[in-house]
Every structure is written in C-alpha cells, then in structure tokens.
Amino acid sequence: MKKILPVILGIIVLAVLVVGGWLIHRQEQLGAPPAGLARSNGRLELERIDVATLYPGRVKAVLAEEGDEVRAGDVLAELSSDTASSRVEAAKAQKQRVQETAARANAEIKAYEQRLHVAQLELDNAHAMRRSELISDSELRKRRAERDSAAASVAAAKAAHAEAQAAISAAQAQMSEAASANDDMLIRSPIDGRVEYKIADVGNVLAAGGKVVSLLDPADASMNIFLPAPQVAQLKLGDEARIVLDSIDAVFPARISYVASDAQFTPKNVETVNERAKLMFKVKLKVPSATALQYKGLLKGGMTGNGYVRLNEQAQWPADLAVKLPQ
C-alpha cells in the first residue's frame, strides 16, 4: 500500500500538469487576436457629470432619485437662500424708488415748461412795451432773467429725469441679476442623462460649487484599453475599432478618440501577450453617440469586455468582429 500511494500521487500530479498545460495552450490560442488586429480588455465607461450649485445655500429638496432618466433643464434639486431672496426684494424696492423719482422729475419738467412758456410770453410783451418806451431797460432785463431761470429749471428737471431713467435701467439689471441668482437655486440638469448618485441630501448646507447630483451621459460611452508602444505607434485618431462586451452577444462599432502621449505602468486588470511589457499606452475607444443612445438602457458603466483596433488600414475585420448590434 505504501508503494502504491506515491505512484498514484505521481499520476495525479502528472495529469494536473498535462491538463493545465493544455488549458494554458488553449487559452493562448483562443485569446490571440486575428492578424493585423490588437486587442485588450477594459470596462465600459459612461461620461460622468457632477452638477454643482453656483451659489451657496441649504438643500431644500432633492427631486431626482438614483437611476432616474432626466431631460436637459429638468429640476434635480432645490436650494433655499435668504441672501438670494433678500437680493430680489431689495432690487425690486430700489427699482420702485427710482421709478418714483423719475415720475417726480417728469412732473417737474411739465411744470417748469409751463413756467418757461409764461416767462417767454412776458419777455416778448416786455420787448414790445420797451419799444414803445412804456417800461425801462431794467424791467426788460428782469423779464429776460425770469425767462432764463425758467429755461434752466426745465434743463435741470430733464437732467434729473434722464438720471432717474438710467437708475431705473440699473435697478432693472440688478433685479434681473438677483432673479437669475434666485432661479439658480433650482439645480437643473445640463443634459439628457441618468442620475448616478445623489451627492447632497435635504438639509445639507452647500458652499458655492458644492456638488448636488452626479449624472451619466448615455450618449458618451467608451472603453479604455491599454496597448504597448509598438502597436500604439500604428494607430491614428478616428480609426475604426470594435467593442465586444462579455455579457452581450453583440459587436459594437467604435472609433479611437484618444491616445495617451505618456506611457504608464500596466494596470493590474490588463492582460498582455508579452508579460515582459511594463509600460502601456491608454487608448480610448468611443461608441458613436447615436448607437450609445439607441442602447442606453443596455449599456452600463463597468461592463467588462474587449476592445479591438486595426494596426493598419489594410487589415480586414474578421466575420466574428463584424458590427452586430443587439436585437
């Protein structure tokens, strides 16, 4: 029995080595990309947008839940701010005051114009009487001074009215600015997208620039892959690419939208044929916006898969990498 046991163990070890070697060889055969193509694994990413507040305030309500589909302009959250409300009321009060000032100036213009009209009539009459020597030169000069004084009063009233009108315009601008700031207390979605996270909760006090909600842009889907320098050197921005996700029986079209200019250490989740390669370049494969939107309910951030690129334009896509969209 003691002699048989080592033999059995030896057979088992040999079988494990043979099977393991076959599996490794098989994996290498299956994993090798077709000639003229390069492949690397990655994860699907959706562009993330953190929506923040322009002004400080307290979160009054959060109207969007995680996972909600929202349209551009939809209100995601509402903030309250005594400062913003006070600015609106102060601007309204200022506009009311300058409007009253303008109204008084307008009334004064009419009164002074009537006074000027009477003074001009008296001056004309004084000229006629002086020609007949019915009044003295001093009386004529007096009438002329009264006319000039009335004309100056009209000019001053018109200047005051113009100043009041300018003040009204300034007050209106302040009121519009205050109203805009108050409207900015409603945090709106900048895009059609999907709510990923609620960053702020009701009752939170946020400073200017405080993040409220995180959105995902379903029109901006991409996968980052990592390739060695010799392969990256053959790529061009805009080149065709393919994305195959592990969980979907489909082949999505893509384009190379970005190639890193600096190499970086190989990430742990990147599988390379040449294990000696220590530095890799990031290449971004972007799915066309129309395709991403068409399958926005299917494509989700974090989905794993492989990205394929052509190393030269003459290389043909094999049949299993022809574009095949989900049905």
Automatic annotation (TrEMBL):
Coiled-coil annotation reads 88-129
Q: Tell me which SUPFAM superfamilies the record gives.
A: HlyD-like secretion proteins (SSF111369)
Entry keywords, A to Z? Coiled coil
- The answer, when asked if Coiled coil is one of the entry's keywords, is yes
**Keyword hit for Coiled coil:** yes
Q: Which PANTHER family match?
A: 36 KDA ANTIGEN-RELATED, MEMBRANE PROTEIN
Name under which the protein is recorded: HlyD family efflux transporter periplasmic adaptor subunit
The uppermost taxa in this organism's lineage are: Bacteria, Pseudomonadati, Pseudomonadota, Betaproteobacteria, Rhodocyclales
